[in-house]
Amino acid sequence: MNEFMEKQVKLSWHAPKKGYDVVIIGGGGHGLSTAYHLAKRHGISNVAVLERSYIGGGNSGRNTTIIRADYGIPEAVKFYQRSVELYQRLEEETGRWIMHKTKGMLKLAHSEASLKTERARALMNQAFGSDTVFVTPDEVKEICPQIDLTCGGTLPVLGGSYHRTGATARHDRVNWTLAEGALQEGAHIHQNTEVTGLIMKDNKVLGVKTNQGDIEAGVVISNAGGHVSTVCGMAGLRIPIRTHPLQAYVTNHFAQTFDPIVASSDLLFYVSQTARGEMLMGAEIDRQPSYNRRSGFDLLQSCSYRAGLLLPFLKSLRINRQWAGSCDMSPDYSPIMGKTPVENFLINTGWGTWGFKAIPVSGEQMAKLVATGKTPDLIAPFSLDRFARDRTMADRGSAGTH
Ligand SMILES: Cc1cc2nc3c(=O)[nH]c(=O)nc-3n(C[C@H](O)[C@H](O)[C@H](O)COP(=O)(O)OP(=O)(O)OC[C@H]3O[C@@H](n4cnc5c(N)ncnc54)[C@H](O)[C@@H]3O)c2cc1C
Q1: CB-ligand 1 contact for 282 (6 Å cutoff)
Q2: For FRET with 30, which of 18, 66, 82, 353 sits at 20 to 30 Å CA-CA?
Q3: What is the C-alpha to C-alpha distance for residues 279 and 322, in angstroms, rounded to an integer?
Q4: Measured from the CB, is residue 386 less than 6 Å from ligand 1?
Q5: Phi-psi region of 86 (alpha: psi -120 to 50; beta: other; left: phi over 0)
Q6: Gap from CA of 93 to ligand 1 centroid (Å)
Q7: Sign of the torsion angle spanned by Cα atoms 187, 190, 191, 194
Q8: Neighbours of 97 (CB within 10 A)
Q9: Which of 33, 55, 195, 353 best tests ligand 1's pocket when mutated (most atoms within 8 Å of CB)?
Q10: What is the pLDDT of residues 352-363, one digit of tens each?
């Protein structure tokens, strides 16, 4: 965080206590949101967020900030729609400017199969409360005049879906706002505090071991992003997650306004414009599972080629920065939230390439679970035991990177 923002956002640090009612491992958006909602909505403020580095240093500060609810299965549409609505009122609730902007999101189809998918998506979204319509090529051009509908003569745009409530918000401001809100309500956040083990008796978690000493806990929640397998391993729990790098990059300033977020599942890339005018782009995950956060030329070359077919103006821009994050990918491309077979140990993971949009709702729902002891209906379909029950939530086509 730069000095200017540090003066604006009131973050205060404390010495760790001997124990807390709730210990959250990971100070990304999901961990901070859970702490915020526990304190704000349920009055549970004897809470600590333990972050091994700095808050928002993981994927929550590395993403492309897209917020949307145009998913392909009813459970996901309802879940993400709640998050879209929570994001819409987060500025009013917290009094902080998170640079939230509703832009609309176009998902383009360049094949008959994709066209069918986008038509079904629009109908499914309308049925479950999300604002998505099917659009023809002419309507695509009207929404985004910079698009070359012939796609350089390679894969013409046949139509698509338009998700009118698709939005973006500044990622680090979301993290700082939730951190500030949690701290104001009495929660503690400890940076540079790495959880190295769990204190366990039989099948019950009693606390955490950290590089700053042991801390007792009534409940421990893992919000460790791409490192969730390591944290779950401390509880003797194997979970169906693989960690893959995901890269993104920005260009220099584009002088025209580029209104919508544009994605193409056939060309496998997506793009939006930042508040500074840069074009922000991303594509699919790296194939090889890895904790490596290095970015590479291959992605730049292939993604820029595909993006340039659809949006020829991109070819005249320069690439300014590129980076990567570590994504916790689940086999069905859906999150895993809730209880585990280990007592007092909850998980909130499987956020892969799509978790920024879910930060408000997952925090809200996980806080409700802790406060009531009951799994809320909205997240019940995403529980860990769905894999054993053969009730996976397959929604690969909505991930945006496949
Ligand atoms: C390039 C890129 C683009 C993306 N674009 C989008 C997008 O447009 N829209 C969208 O919805 N999603 C997007 N995502 C995904 C989204 O960023 C993540 O799903 C989301 O930020 C996950 O938040 P989190 O809090 O679970 O994890 P993180 O933000 O990664 O936080 C986990 C934290 O846990 C800490 N930690 C790990 N182990 C320990 C330990 N042992 N002790 C203490 N702390 C620990 C880490 O240091 C880290 O800070 C993107 C991701 C990437 C990488």
Answers
A1: yes
A2: 18
A3: 12
A4: no
A5: alpha
A6: 23
A7: negative
A8: 12
A9: 353
A10: 999 999 999 999
Structure-block tokens of residue 292? 């490596």
Q: What's the CA-to-centroid distance between 58 and ligand 1, angstroms?
A: 5
190 lines ligand 1 (CB under 6 A): no
Give the strand order in the sheet containing 66-67. 66-67, 167-168, 101-102
To test the ligand 1 pocket, which listed residue (191, 290, 356) has its Cβ within 8 A of the most ligand atoms?
Answer: 356
- Whole-angstrom distance, CA of residue 124 vs CA of residue 119: 9
CA-nearest residue for atom 15, ligand 1, is: 353
The answer to whether the pTM exceeds 0.90 is yes
Return the SS3 of 90.
helix
CB 98 within 8 A of CB 91: yes
Give me the domains of the chain, ranges plus CATH numbers: 17-62+171-241+331-398 (3.50.50.60), 105-164+242-327 (3.30.9.10)
Is the alpha carbon torsion for 172, 381, 197, 199 positive or negative? Answer: positive
The answer to whether the CB of 208 is under 6 A from ligand 1 is no
Quick one: tokens of 55? Answer: 């808050």
Name the helix (H) or strand (E) containing 191.
none
Asked whether the beta carbons of 134 and 119 are under 8 A apart, the reply is yes
| Å from CA of 365 to ligand 1 middle | 18
Q: How far apart are CA 139 and CA 310, in angstroms?
A: 15
Q: 189: Cβ–Cβ under 8 A, 6 or more apart, which residues?
A: 11, 13, 27, 32, 35, 48, 49, 51, 55, 179, 182, 183
d(CA 233, CA 196): 11
Instruction: Assess whether the C-beta atom of 27 lies below 6 angstroms from ligand 1.
Output: yes
- pLDDT, one tens digit per residue, over 306-365 is 999 999 999 999 999 999 999 999 999 999 999 999 999 999 999 999 999 999 999 999
Q: Cβ(211) to ligand 1 under 6 A?
A: no
Is the CB–ligand 1 distance for residue 245 below 6 Å?
no
Q: Name the H helices within 128-238.
A: 137-143, 171-184, 228-234
Split the chain (402 residues) into runs of 10 and give each run's mean pLDDT: 66 92 98 98 98 97 98 97 98 96 97 96 97 98 98 96 98 97 97 98 97 98 98 97 98 94 94 97 94 94 96 97 97 97 98 97 98 98 96 83 56
SS3 205: strand
